[in-house]
Amino acid sequence: LTYALAANHTLFAGFHRGFSPPRTAQAISSTGQDLELEAERSWEYELGLRGYAPCAGCEWLRYEVTGFYYDFDVEIVPANQSGGAGTADTHAGETRHLGIETAITDDLTRLFTGRCDPCRAGWFVDLGYTFVDTENVTPGGLFEGNDLPYAPEHVGWAGLRFESPSGFSAGIVA
Asked: Tell me: the pLDDT tens digits for 133-158?
């Protein structure tokens, strides 16, 4: 679902039913044992805003901000050996993920030259940040209230890329 707030700003929302059966590498142990993993099932909700900031008629700065909530009935997670579990993937039970994602792309060439020609070479800076709070919410479960393993709360990235008129592009992301 999308709604144009203005010519250059769009509000969007979505909800989805997720279903993901375990991969063979997850469902069968290294010794050939069937781990009897159920398929992951979830409801996923998101609400966000995306758009661009014009400068002399050019789109030089694009942005996106999205809030999300994932409610898993069943989630498969990597086992955490340091917590006393084995090394095979396992069911986490009911989990929830609540967070926000942001991304900005700055067209440096348009910003500094004012050129709006779409058939020109350009340099771009991409920045992103995600915050997510995860929790096992299985009622009465052994891990109820715990964060999920291997799910960092904060993730950020930055990139610089070049695009040529011929379609060639190259970049670096950290």
From this structure: 999 998 887 778 888 888 899 999 99
| Phi/psi at 25 (5° precision) | -65, -25
Phi, psi of 111 (to 5 degrees): -60, -45
SS (HEC) of the chain: CEEEEECCEEEEEEEEEEEECCCHHHHECCCCCECCCCCEEEEEEEEEEEEEEEECCEEEEEEEEEEEEEEEEEEEECCCHHHCCCCCCEEEEEEEEEEEEEEEEEEHHHHHHCCCCCCCCEEEEEEEEEEEEEEECCCCCCCCCCCCCCCCCEEEEEEEEEECCCCCEEEEEC
pTM for the complete prediction? Answer: 0.82
